[in-house]
Amino acid sequence: SYQTTDTLPIGISQSPDGNSEARLGSQTPVSKRDHHLARNRLAASKCRQRKKDWVARLEQQYRDLSAQKVALSETVMLLRAERLQLKQQCLEHQECACEEIRTYLKKMLDKQLSVAGLG
C-alpha cells in the first residue's frame, strides 16, 4: 500500500525508490521488531478510532430512529382517535337520508359480522 512519510512511524523515512522494506533488511532484529510494533500500534489506533466512529454513528442512528418512533406513535394515536370520532359521527347520522352513510354503515356491520363468524 502507498504511504507517505507523514504516516510512517517516527524515525522511519521512505526510501527514494518507495521500498521501505528493502531498508529493513539492513536493520537489526531489534529495530525490525520496533518498526513492526510501531506499525502495529498505528494500525491498532486507527482500528480503535474506526470502531469509536462506527459506535457513535450507530448511537446517533438509534437516537434518530427512537425519536421517529415516538413521533409516529403519536401520529398513529391521533389518527385512531380521529377515526373513532368519524365513526361516531357516522353512527349519529344513521337515521339521515344520506345514502352514502347508510352504505358505509351496512358495509361496516357486514365486516364486523364476518369477523365474528356470524356472517
From TrEMBL:
Region forming the signal peptide: none
Cellular localisation: Nucleus
Annotated CDD domains: bZIP_ATF2
Keywords assigned by UniProt, alphabetized: DNA-binding, Nucleus, Transcription, Transcription regulation
Gene3D superfamilies for this protein: 1.20.5.170
Sample GO molecular function, one term: DNA-binding transcription factor activity
Keyword field contains Nucleus: yes
Ranges of residues in domain BZIP: 30-93
Skewed-composition ranges (Polar residues): 1-18
The keyword DNA-binding is annotated on this UniProt entry: yes
GO cellular component: nucleus
Major location category of this protein: nucleus
Protein's name according to its UniProt entry: BZIP domain-containing protein
Cited InterPro entries: bZIP, bZIP_sf, bZIP_transcription_factors, Leuzip_Jun
Chain positions covered by the region annotation Disordered: 1-35
